[in-house]
Each structure stands twice: as C-alpha cells, then as structure tokens.
C-alpha cells in the first residue's frame, strides 16, 4: 500500500507484545519510504548474548549488565527485512525462541542495559533522520523515553487473550509449539514485568493516540496509521 510522499520525522509505535506492532510498523515504514527500527529485537539480541555467556536470571546483575551492554548488536533499518546481527551473525530467528522470551523482560529491566541501548537507538534514529529523513520506531518506551519529541506517537493495545492467540500463531509459524494456557500466562507475566519495572515502564505516553487492535485486521490498522501520518502533515 503506497502513499503519495515520503515520511519525514519519527513515528513512535508502542505497546505490549501481540498487538501487531512489528507487522504494522514495518508495513508503515515500507509504504512511506522510511527506515524502521525494532528496539525490542535489540533487547532480545542482547539477551541472547547473556544466555550465550552462560548467564540466567539468577546471575549477578553486574555480570548480566557487562555482557548485555558490550554485545555487538546491529539491527537492520530496512523495513523489508527482519534481520538483526549479534557479533556479525544473523540471529533474527533465534531471538524469538522460548529461552530469550523468558529472560528478555528481566534483562531489559536493568537500568544500565536500558541506558546503553537507548543511546544506541537514539544514534540510529539520528543517522536515519539525517539520511533517508523518516523512521518508524517500535518498542515499549519509544514515545515516552527514546523519542519524546516524535511527531506522531501511537500506542497499540489488545486484550490478553487476543494477544496470546496471535503469539501462538506466530510461534506455530516459526515451528514452535506451546500450550495456549502457557502462552497466555507468559503474556501476562511479561505485561506485569514490563509495566512495573523501575526504569522506563511500559505505558502510553501522555500525548499518544491509543489504538485498540482487537477487532482490526493488519490492513485496517495500517490504513488508520497512514491516515494519521497524512493528517499530521508528515508526508513530503
């Protein structure tokens, strides 16, 4: 779905997992000729580095911070791909596995980890704004912390049950199987951890537009986002 013009500025996309955030963010960026940044994938890649170092949730926080902040994480900004590299290796599939999913909230809750990755994210955003001119950034603290001056902030939401069902379908497509009850419990666990952490908790920015995706298809969500981008005068 193309639009007449290219995105200029930042669109901040926040929300919990299972709201369709990644899919619509990539499609919005592609439609508007913009760059795309999945900040959640960066935290997942850093978490994978922690796991590869033989650490887990019971390990000393200082050790986790040392590994996570030193990890060579390189995300793509091309909305047509989902590649992310860790020490030069494409780990896009591995970071979606169960082990990373279970640990990522704990790793990303550490203030030093968040501070280090936010600095990297802001550097990437600045580079893309100075080049291609526009970027869609998705995560859990984009509008409130990473880019508080974003021209458009959207917070996607959906019920726990809908989000768990969507994640179950994604896992099945990737070749992973899980009991629906276990998936729902994990969605609730991550929501609790992400929304109660001391640093950059998951919440909608005060000036974000809330978009409930329970009954909306991906195409319908994208259409609304394109309308908002045009309405804000962000296309040139």
UniProtKB/TrEMBL annotation:
Kind of enzyme, top EC level? Answer: transferase
Q: Please list the residue ranges annotated as the Cytidylate kinase domain.
A: 11-229
Domain of life, per UniProt, equals Bacteria
- Where found in the cell? Cytoplasm
Keywords for the protein's UniProt record, in alphabetical order = ATP-binding, Cytoplasm, Kinase, Nucleotide-binding, Transferase
* An individual GO BP term: pyrimidine nucleotide metabolic process
Note whether Transmembrane occurs among the keywords. Answer: no
Give a GO molecular function annotation for the protein.
Answer: dCMP kinase activity
- Pfam families attached here? Cytidylate_kin (PF02224)
Which family is this sequence assigned to? Belongs to the cytidylate kinase family. Type 1 subfamily.
* UniProt protein name: Cytidylate kinase
- Organism field: Pseudonocardia asaccharolytica DSM 44247 = NBRC 16224
């Amino acid at each position: 779905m193309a639009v007449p013009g290219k995105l200029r500025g930042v669109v901040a996309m926040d929300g919990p997992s299972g709201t369709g955030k990644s899919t619509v963010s990539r499609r919005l960026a592609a439609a508007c000729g913009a760059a795309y940044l999945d900040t959640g994938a960066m935290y997942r890649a850093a978490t994978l580095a922690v796991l590869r170092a033989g650490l887990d949730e019971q390990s000393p926080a200082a050790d986790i911070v040392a590994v996570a902040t030193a990890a060579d994480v390189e995300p793509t900004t091309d909305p047509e791909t989902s590649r992310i590299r860790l020490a030069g290796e494409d780990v896009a599939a591995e970071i979606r596995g169960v082990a990373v999913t279970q640990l990522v909230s704990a790793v990303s809750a550490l203030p030093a980890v968040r501070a280090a990755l936010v600095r990297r994210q802001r550097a990437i955003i600045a580079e893309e704004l100075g080049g291609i001119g526009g970027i869609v950034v998705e995560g859990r603290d984009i509008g409130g912390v990473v880019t508080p001056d974003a021209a458009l902030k959207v917070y996607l939401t959906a019920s726990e049950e809908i989000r768990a069902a969507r994640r179950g379908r994604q896992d099945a497509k990737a070749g992973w199987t899980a009991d629906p009850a276990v998936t729902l419990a994990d969605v609730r666990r991550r929501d609790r951890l992400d929304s109660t952490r001391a640093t950059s908790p998951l919440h909608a920015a005060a000036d974000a537009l809330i978009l409930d995706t329970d009954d909306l298809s991906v195409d319908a969500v994208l259409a609304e986002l394109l309308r908002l981008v045009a309405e804000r005068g962000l296309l040139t």
